[in-house]
């Protein structure tokens, strides 16, 4: 084989001989017994014999090239360690390229052309057989233990995809130049498909259980390169593991999509920890272990690194999907894949997600980021593109089932009815054409079946890609980004609880508790805190620190808001009286997710920077107070939470102008907040009693802020006037109810805290107690501290709102159905704060519990005075004195003394004492009136309060007669008949005019009798005097 090169070939060699030398060098073969045998060069003895038998020369010429190649590859029993057929073909391709370069120096143009054609022919054969061998490794004998040819192919691809910034070096040497491009790009689908099947599987395995800190970039670049080749892209979407059908014990279909689909492995790459199928390296352990002891700069560096690598993943996967979507041969399969991922993981939307049944949060966060990137073109032009989003997709598409999702304001039966109406519309649209068809041709049974299928909405709709992408993204975000945000909140809450417990246990240990159980609890809690802290930082790194990701999601939900509002006629109030079915039937999570994201981003510094919020604000104002459009009170409560976050003093956003200059805000914000304050009393949840305090806390903060904005305060006064006996009265009633409950609970818990404080102060007795008992008492102490702090904060808020509203809007407090309730509340508060038991409320550190008795007493006195100033009918003093539970005239004197001592406003104290005097006089008058009436017939007494009725009304269901103010006061909190629990509203009350006249006659007769008796007594006294004279 030591033949001279073509460039120096001796002239005596014929063209056949030159060609023979070159082809044998490429194929590493002899056709005659070699003088100097080499293990790398094969003697094809049988091939030579066949050529001789055919009377052909023993020369490796073009027409024998394929026979020589096959025979070279077919050598039996190759030893271990020898090149595989595929490796031999790759090296032959390289040698062919070398020889092609060498012949360029041959001066004989005809010879050069002949040799070039022969080398090109052989090169094409090498590529063809490379594809055959890569797809079917057993085609030719293979050395024992040889790896699949696709593994070599993957090594080549990875080597060519190498980048200096990759975390690890390339796994092997690159292939000959041009080999990959010609191997993949120059083949038809049928020849390349078998090889691609194994290659894609190996590519999937290369990123299997790789985390964000692992080497996924090279495989991703390989995938990106492959899908750019049409036949390779087609092979990918036709791969058995494009949508895997595996059924694996204990593993659900959703998880199978992640673990076994080709794309699933790439989507699994994440910073978010997957406990069931852990990825390496462990991001939490490597970046955030013992985070409290790390320098802030180190944490920031970790956040930046993770954000950078994850965005590289998002961009790469977006490119892959976009290329496949642009290819008409693969687009449908891509949409099918995304739909399958969504459908098989639908249970991720539940409160509890089975990690063995569903794909991980990491996968769905990644898919969320990729889908948002696919949406970008129409998010940039949403005003012009929103009309391409067809609401019928929700119920007439063949990919994703939306019908089982909770609708915004429709039951499942109503949704079904609406779908039927769509189907009927389809039938009507096709009726004329179908009639013409029947006239021209005989109707067949198949035609009847076709009509029936249309009525079942099974007719294939032609929805635009924008429409499909929009609704798919909405589901992916719900199952992905928004679920992950929910998980993050849950982790944060868990972490906070464990940290509180850990702090409490350490405090117990520091105060002398030292049991073995306590030490074990502390160790266990420290472990939980470390794990949860790492998890929290991982979520933060991938989601919360990625401002671009969050703003893309906000842009998507802005489009969602624009599209939703479009269904009801646009941004205008009032809303149509009848909620359109198109709006009522859309999934609730569309809007719920938008509000959740707004709450989150509003609390992240700079997350909303430069983002226009006007559309969100208008949407919230429109729907926050409307039960006929949004049924779920918790969703409407989230809208308040959003606005609460946007208060200028809290958010740092320049949203003051929005609240003050936004016309919908000025007209409807206060009204809708008051409506929601009332509606939230009954949410239908088993936790509604406690939920309402959190929600009303947000409403109260917002109302307090709006009270200081003159335009909104004027709107508030107008509403109070218009709705004096409507929603505003209900609002005041619940405000009073909450104030009483919260202050009462707080004060009772303070007494219990004082009791434990006294126990701990007696150190001798305390130390004698068993360690377990003292630990339990300390836990209770810390738990009650938190409860008192929360309840007292809300109580202060509510009393403050009563103080500032009573100053300018006192009239509703003085209504017959309200005035006694208000007086009783104030008297009760006054008794607690200025009565004999006030000293029992003294605790070591009242500020720690937000217990401010001096401030509370000043506010209570101020409320008394504010209401008294508006009392033109002098009904307030009588209501104060009528309270038999807490009223006594000495209490007011005691309160005034305390107010003087703590620096109360002298004018308020003076008016407060004047009111006390009027109340004392009213009490005396009431006693006189009671004496005049004497024994009142039972039928004249209100059966609830046992007081004389003034305006008797009959309840329609139970037929019981009660006093109107008493029953209205009851209905403010409970819309049911108190005697049989049937539904009852104010307008259902039946005035009992006859009884009212009887009561009035009774009062007159008693007063007349009393006057006659008094006159008679005076006359008798005068007669006695005359007799005495």
Automatic annotation (TrEMBL):
Gene Ontology BP terms: ERAD pathway; protein polyubiquitination; ubiquitin-dependent protein catabolic process
CDD domains reported for this sequence: RING-Ubox_UBE4A
Main location: cytoplasm
Compositional bias per record (Acidic residues), positions renumbered to this chain: 1019-1029
Transmembrane segment boundaries: none
Keyword set, alphabetical order: Cytoplasm, Nucleus, Transferase, Ubl conjugation pathway
U-box domain boundaries: 935-1009
This protein's pathway: Protein modification; protein ubiquitination
InterPro entries: Ub_conjug_fac_E4_core, UBE4, Ubox_domain, Znf_RING/FYVE/PHD
Catalytically driven reaction(s): S-ubiquitinyl-[E2 ubiquitin-conjugating enzyme]-L-cysteine + [acceptor protein]-L-lysine = [E2 ubiquitin-conjugating enzyme]-L-cysteine + N(6)-ubiquitinyl-[acceptor protein]-L-lysine
Stretch list, region Disordered: 1010-1029
GO molecular function, one term: ubiquitin-ubiquitin ligase activity
Record-stated family: Belongs to the ubiquitin conjugation factor E4 family.
Lineage of source species: Eukaryota, Viridiplantae, Streptophyta, Embryophyta, Tracheophyta
Designated name of the protein: RING-type E3 ubiquitin transferase
EC number: 2.3.2.27
Subcellular location: Cytoplasm; Nucleus
Pfam families assigned: U-box, Ufd2P_core
GO cellular component: cytoplasm; nucleus; ubiquitin ligase complex
Lineage top rank: taxon: Eukaryota
